[in-house]
Amino acid sequence: MNVSDAMDLPAGIFKLKSARAIAKSLKKSSESSHRRKSSPFRSAMSMLNFEINRAGKNLSAERLGVLNRAKSELRKVFGRPP
Fold first, then answer.
1. What is the pLDDT of residue 21?
2. What pLDDT is stored for residue 4 in this prediction?
3. What 3-state class would DSSP assign to 2?
4. What is the mean pLDDT of each run of 10 residues along the chain (82 residues)?
5. Alpha helix (H) residue ranges in 1-82
6. Backbone dihedral angles phi then psi of residue 9, each to the nearest 5 degrees
7. 43 burial class (0-12, 13-18, 19+ CB within 10 angstroms)?
8. What's the rounded Cα separation, in Å, for the pair 43 and 34?
9. Are 74 and 20 in contact (CB under 8 A)?
10. Are 38 and 46 in contact (CB under 8 A)?
11. Are 14 and 29 in contact (CB under 8 A)?
C-alpha cells in the first residue's frame, strides 16, 4: 500500500491498465480519507500528478498516456469540466 500524509492508496493503483479504473480508485481513496487538508478532487489530482512527475523519464510512452488520460477521467468522475 502506498502511504502519504493525505491518504492511503491501494497497492498497484498506478499500474492499472484502465485510466478510468485509476481515476475511480483515486476518487474512492480521496473521499474516504480523513487526513487530507484539501478537497477530495485536489488531493486525488495531486497524487496522480506526483506519480507522473516522480516516475518521470522512467515511464513508457504508453504508461504516461494512460496516466495522463486518468487526469481527464478523474475530472469526469468528480463532475468537473475538462
1. 96
2. 52
3. strand
4. 62 91 94 85 93 87 94 96 82
5. 19-32, 40-55, 61-77
6. -115, 145
7. buried
8. 12
9. no
10. yes
11. no
